[in-house]
TrEMBL record:
Its main location: cytoplasm. ATP binds at residue 242. Residues 4-306 form the Glutamyl/glutaminyl-tRNA synthetase class Ib catalytic domain. It catalyses: tRNA(Glu) + L-glutamate + ATP = L-glutamyl-tRNA(Glu) + AMP + diphosphate. This is Glutamate--tRNA ligase. It comes from Puniceibacterium antarcticum. Gene3D superfamilies: 1.10.10.350, HUPs. Residues 325-464 form the Aminoacyl-tRNA synthetase class I anticodon-binding domain. The lineage of its organism: Bacteria, Pseudomonadati, Pseudomonadota, Alphaproteobacteria, Rhodobacterales. GO terms for biological process: glutamyl-tRNA aminoacylation.
Length: 469
């Protein structure tokens, strides 16, 4: 029986959950969940000067909105400092690490001389093979003894085998002179102690893997499976930055993108399964594998994102959609929906979901059921309600008083009234939209009448007939 798959997402809490970080988390989540494994969360808060509780909270909110649930509690890397130091001391005792008493000035002098002589500036500590009897009573760091010959091979599921000559790697510091562990050591110890089997992360960490393999080897630990994924670029092919638009996951929620659509889009951003574009979570978990990840950077494309989001809105259960709409209102700092508005939305959802790519588009279509009479007319709607149109609306309302409230009969009545007034229903539709919604871009006239009901429809038509722009 094969060992349980364990993946992890390990963000630094120095800001919001970046869209690139969200995709890394998603890939880890999909890989673990699709194989019955564990997906763990570690907050890499060792940079105490830059790490903040607010940033940690933002990361947790972003993961929660995206629906990326993790197993157990989130682990704080800073809390494990004593364990990280303990491992460094074990390597020291085993002869795989050494004390280095070189000062910053001595290291800089070495590098200046190396530059002048056009040789490698990788620091070669004179303390690497020094006799402990010669150790001075001075501050020291603990360095890893990196092999000086041969090569380190990173067997990577995305990048293939990457070979780095050991003479290109320095003797990495493990413990600083104040006894605190460095990030590179902490990552390896945490991944080992958490049982991480697959490290799926951005390819900006690829070179780190070679140095981290040195720690695994020194400790006699099993090296995890590596998968370094290309970063996300903007539509112009350049590194993603603020100029390309939203970067934080919470911004996407506040802009009204549904979480399922964002998950679907991020899964397709740099990974593919044949020609499949639109899929749900269960399909993504079943299909996702490391071999489908592209080697080249993916480009953010807001049109594709909106397209997929529209498809997800269309197939989402009405109650679930209302729940997410309410969360969107909160994220966008809009006034919460009232009970009548929520009831109205549930009635109208069937005619709102199609062709709405974002929640703002859906809300725009839903204005007729969210607003209360008397309606405020926008500029285009006000132009529709000229004297002739108002007269026809006035003639229509008595005929609706006793109509059975079904689409076929309403359609027959509206067509008849249009004909009696020397026009066609198509010409009457604009004024009717204005009367029922206060705007001209709406669901169909019949859907609005059915959702609003007889009394509210007649009230709005009467008010529109008396409208004086």
């Amino acid at each position: 029986m094969s060992a349980e798959i364990v993946t992890r997402f390990a963000p630094s809490p120095t800001g919001y959950l970046h869209i690139g970080g969200a995709r890394t988390a998603l890939f880890n989540w999909l890989y673990a969940r699709g194989r019955g494994g564990k997906f763990l969360l570690r907050i890499e808060d060792t940079d105490l000067a830059r790490s903040t509780p607010d940033a940690t909270a933002a990361i947790l909110r972003g993961l929660d909105w995206l629906g990326l649930d993790y197993d157990g509690e989130a682990v704080s890397q800073a809390a494990g400092a004593a364990r990280h130091a303990e491992v460094a001391l074990q390597m020291l005792d085993a002869g795989n690490a050494y004390k280095c008493f070189s000062t910053q000035e001595e290291i800089e002098d070495f590098r200046e001389a190396a530059r002048a002589e056009n040789r490698s500036t990788l620091y070669q500590s004179p303390w690497r093979d020094a006799d402990p009897a010669t150790y001075p009573d001075l501050p020291f760091v603990i360095r890893l003894k990196t092999p000086t010959a041969g090569s380190t091979i990173i067997h990577d599921e995305v990048q293939g085998d990457v070979t780095i000559r050991n003479d290109q790697l320095d003797d990495m510091i493990l413990l600083r002179s104040d006894g605190t562990p460095v990030y590179m050591l902490a990552v390896v110890v945490d991944d080992h102690d958490m049982g991480v089997t697959h490290v799926i992360r951005g390819d900006d960490h690829l070179n780190n893997a070679a140095r981290q393999i040195g720690i695994y080897t020194a400790m006699g630990w099993k090296v995890p499976v590596w998968a370094h994924i290309p970063l996300i670029h903007g539509p112009d092919g350049k590194k993603l930055s603020k100029r390309h638009g939203a970067l934080g996951v919470e911004e996407y929620q506040a802009m009204g993108y549904p979480a399922a659509g964002v998950r679907n889009y991020l899964a397709r951003l740099g990974w593919s399964h044949g020609n499949d574009e639109f899929f749900d979570d269960s399909q993504a978990k079943e299909w996702f594998d490391l071999s489908g990840i592209n080697k080249s950077p993916a480009r953010l494309d807001f049109k594709k994102l909106e397209n997929l989001c529209g498809q997800h809105i269309a197939v989402t259960d009405d109650a679930a959609l209302l729940h997410e709409l309410q969360a969107y209102f909160a994220a966008a700092e809009k006034s919460p929906l009232s009970k009548p508005q929520k009831d109205g939305l549930m009635l109208a959802m069937y005619c709102l979901k199609d062709r709405a790519k974002t929640f703002p588009e859906l809300i725009e279509k839903a204005e007729f059921v969210l607003a209360t009479a008397p309606l405020e007319m926008d500029e285009k709607a006000a132009k529709m309600l000229d004297a002739v149109s108002r007269g026809i609306l006035g003639a229509l309302t008595p005929q609706l008083q006793n109509a059975s409230w079904f689409k076929d009969e309403l359609e027959a009545i509206l067509n008849r009234v249009a004909e009696e007034n020397g026009t066609k229903f198509g010409k009457l539709a604009g004024p009717l939209r204005a009367a029922l919604a206060g705007r001209t871009v709406t669901p169909s006239v019949f859907d609005m009448m059915l959702v609003l009901g007889r009394d509210e429809t007649i009230l709005r038509l009467n008010q529109a007939a008396a409208f004086e722009g």
